[in-house]
Structure to design on (475 residues):
């Protein structure tokens, strides 16, 4: 069930009415309704996926209780190990089995040995990377004694499967979201209005910005050899805005829906394309994932403490793991390595925290933002390409400047119209978010007039013919 679908447009008001007007503000009934709605929402794709999320929920619920009742250090480590191994085992099997098998066979073939293999027809459960990390945060926090385990299974199950952010984040920490299921919630009109405005803003980013940019980005990336250097450059820029509008749009919608039900989710994006270096970019992009890796992997490894060799090792590990988290393809590992190589000079020169202070933006900052955006966009080429060779060919043809025409963008009246819509929508997004970034706001401050204007723009400029999944559903 997609946020930008008719099904969800019917589903959400029904759940909203039942939640506020039928449960009679009874906390247990509200949480039970959220759980039922979440399983219905998740099972809409494939009901078989429910068995996996229910199993993970039961496992970590039991592990949490065992950890809270056990004082023996060895046994506590054993219980935590079960949670980590089983959860990551499921994630590894469903997401990476065929990848490792195919590369294993290819390695033998390289040395002249032929072995037979049989790849499984495995369906990747939607959102498995997100809810796996979410439930792992619970087990780890209980193990660290930073969070008390819950004895209420319904509350815990609702936390794991919370439908607004279930399939594409933000990856919520148990310490932040789970306690909200314990507190009495009453309807707040202003909070609900703010939620609706965020939903509208997120839909604009997805349907108008991302999906219109995708029209050209998909065609160019699918056949890069057919296009000029100029067209490849625009295709790269369009994909940069496609993935940002798509993913941050989902997060805005998820946060907005959560507000309708009295929940607050963490901010997942803070206008990352206005970053002055790569370190600042990663403090603003997919914050829930980057901070998860920071707290549960980078810091336990030693973080930025210790020798330069240890620091380099930790940075390489965190970025390579982050890349591999995104999918079973060498392109994601190269994408992670690319960002690691951009980040390391800042770390080694102790400049990775230079752009923390809030200050007025000057011309030098704008140039740094443009430079960082272009570097990030080059990285997106590896992220989007089907293979490393394809990404390298794309970049070679783009940077060779052999041809620099733009015929593809005015091939027909339809192309001209979509191109104009794409440019106009990107312009609106950029100007508006630059203003919010300049005002040091973490979330959009949308007036009622602006919300109505966005609805009109969605209606007239939205890409409705080819309904597209959110990009991060595949992760």
């Amino acid at each position: 069930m997609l946020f930008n679908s008719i099904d969800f447009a019917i589903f959400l008001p029904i759940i909203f009415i039942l939640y506020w007007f039928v449960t009679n503000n009874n906390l247990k009934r509200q949480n039970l309704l959220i759980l039922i709605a979440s399983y219905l929402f998740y099972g809409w794709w494939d009901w078989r996926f429910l068995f996996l999320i229910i199993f993970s929920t039961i496992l970590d619920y039991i592990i949490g209780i065992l950890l809270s009742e056990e004082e023996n250090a060895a046994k506590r480590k054993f219980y935590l190990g079960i949670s980590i191994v089983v959860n990551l085992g499921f994630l590894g099997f469903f997401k990476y089995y065929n990848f490792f098998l195919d590369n294993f066979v290819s390695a033998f073939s390289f040395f002249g040995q032929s072995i037979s293999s049989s790849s499984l027809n495995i369906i990747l459960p939607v959102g498995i990377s997100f809810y796996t990390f979410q439930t792992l945060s619970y087990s780890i926090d209980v193990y660290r004694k930073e969070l008390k385990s819950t004895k209420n299974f319904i509350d815990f199950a609702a936390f794991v499967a919370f439908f607004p952010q279930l399939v594409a984040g933000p990856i919520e920490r148990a310490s932040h979201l789970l306690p909200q299921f314990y507190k009495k919630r009453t309807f707040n009109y202003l909070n609900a209005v703010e939620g609706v405005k965020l939903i509208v803003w997120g839909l604009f980013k997805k349907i108008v910005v991302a999906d219109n940019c995708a029209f050209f980005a998909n065609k160019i990336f699918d056949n890069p050899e057919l296009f000029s250097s100029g067209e490849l450059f625009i295709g790269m820029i369009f994909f940069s805005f496609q993935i940002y509008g798509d993913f941050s749009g989902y997060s805005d919608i998820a946060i907005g829906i959560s507000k309708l039900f009295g929940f607050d989710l963490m901010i997942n994006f803070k206008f990352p394309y206005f970053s002055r270096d790569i370190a600042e970019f990663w403090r603003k992009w997919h914050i829930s994932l980057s901070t998860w890796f920071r707290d549960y992997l980078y810091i336990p490894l030693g973080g930025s403490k210790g020798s330069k060799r240890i620091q380099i090792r930790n940075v390489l590990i965190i970025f390579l793991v982050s890349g591999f988290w995104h999918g079973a393809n060498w392109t994601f590992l190269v994408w992670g390595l690319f960002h690691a190589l951009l980040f390391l000079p800042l770390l080694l020169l102790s400049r990775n925290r230079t752009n923390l202070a809030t200050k007025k933006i000057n011309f030098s900052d704008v140039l740094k933002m443009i430079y960082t955006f272009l570097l990030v966009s080059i990285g997106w080429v590896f992220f989007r390409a089907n293979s490393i060779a394809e990404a390298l060919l794309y970049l070679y043809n783009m940077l060779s400047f052999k041809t620099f025409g733009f015929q593809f963008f005015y091939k027909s009246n339809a192309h001209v119209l979509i191109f104009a819509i794409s440019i106009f929508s990107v312009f609106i997004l950029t100007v508006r978010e630059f203003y919010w970034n300049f005002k040091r706001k973490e979330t959009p401050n949308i007036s009622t007039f602006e919300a109505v204007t966005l609805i009109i723009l969605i209606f007239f400029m939205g890409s409705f013919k080819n309904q597209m999944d959110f990009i991060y559903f595949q992760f």
